[in-house]
Amino acid sequence: MPLRDGVDPTRLVIAEEEDGRTLGEVLEARFPGTSEYVAGESARGCVRGSDGAPLAPSTTLAARQAVWMYRELPDEIDVPFPMPILYQDERIVVVDKPHFLATMPRGARVVQSALVRLRRELGEPQLSPAHRLDRLTAGVLLFTRDPAVRGRYQQLFATGAAHKEYAALAPVRADVALPAVVESRIEKTPGIMRAYEVEGPVNARSRVALESVAPDGAGGTVGRYRLRPETGKTHQLRLHMTRLGIPILGDPLYPEQRETVDGDFSDPLRLLARSLRFIDPVDGAEREFVSARDLAAPSTRSSG
Fold first, then answer.
1. Residue 238 pLDDT level (bands cut at 50, 70, 90)
2. Residues 6+ apart with CB under 8 A from 151
3. What pTM was estimated for this model as a whole?
4. N or C: which end of the chain has fewer CB within 10 A?
5. Using CA atoms, how far apart are residues 168 and 279, in angstroms rounded to an integer?
């Protein structure tokens, strides 16, 4: 099924315990209150099996059968920050992602994602990210246009051939010796927001250096740090800065999780994917892209 206004169709797989139930029964049990929406989608031929055949609410389903349909889009709070294009050619598009914008649709954030926003802006349904940035992290993000070369750009990130540098604002501590290399083992359980450092072989390594110190506007100081991840574990830089005792300002998860309000953009995570550098896997050109964003001190309450 093609994209609908920049959004991919959703694939649902029928569970063993759902064997023999109708499509309407399965979807109402999974997504209560959506039976009217499903009936309308089915009437338009927009609910289909893997063979492309349309499915009706009365269709009996079998375990492990796949169903394709367009999900009902949730009500989303608009992320009111621009996402400038830094570079584009026939193969790639590089953007300067703002804070609070997810890279890809997930959960309650579908339209408010960099992927859907860019697909709609450029009218290109085949755009796909070559890597990801956390929703709370701003900065350089690369998309591919041509599916034929997509894997080659993705491999840059999978193999560490893409060199990434981040900037962060965090407290200054005289007892933290910098520059430093921080190593640990990081694990994350799907469905749980926080990642954790655990005992075991090292799988995450980051280089941390203090670039400058400036007044924070409240009588103290704030440090601007240069971060270079040598691996790509989830929340790696945030965990490693916390481990050093200098957690990144505006972090709602580390060192302790704090309650946030969806739509409050006043206190962003002060973490920026500042630059991305690599040898183009198609033409061999040296590529480097630099974010035009800056990280404001907390007293400015800026979204970066």
1. very high
2. none
3. 0.83
4. N
5. 26
Distance between CA 49 and CA 55 in Å, rounded?
A: 7
Task: Tell me phi and psi for residue 197, to 5 degrees.
Answer: -90, 130
Share of the chain above pLDDT 70, in %: 97
Tokens 């790696």 belong to residue: 236
163 CB burial (10 A radius; 0-12, 13-18, 19+): middle
Determine the Cα–Cα distance for residues 112 and 102; give it in Å rounded to an integer. 7
Q: How confident is the model at residue 294 (pLDDT cuts 50, 70, 90)?
A: confident
Helix (H), strand (E) counts: the chain: 5, 14
First vs last Cα of the chain: how many Å apart? 37
Name the token pair of 280.
């183009």
Element (H, E) at 104: none
- Asked if residues 30 and 63 have their Cβ atoms less than 8 Å apart, the reply is no
Task: Name the 3-class secondary structure at 121.
Answer: helix
Query: The tokens 């090292």 sit on which residue?
Result: 202
30-57 CB burial, b ≥16 within 10 A, e <16: eeeeeeeebbebbeeebbbeeeeeebeb
* Structural domains of the chain ordered from first start: 10-69 (3.10.290.10), 85-300 (3.30.2350.10)
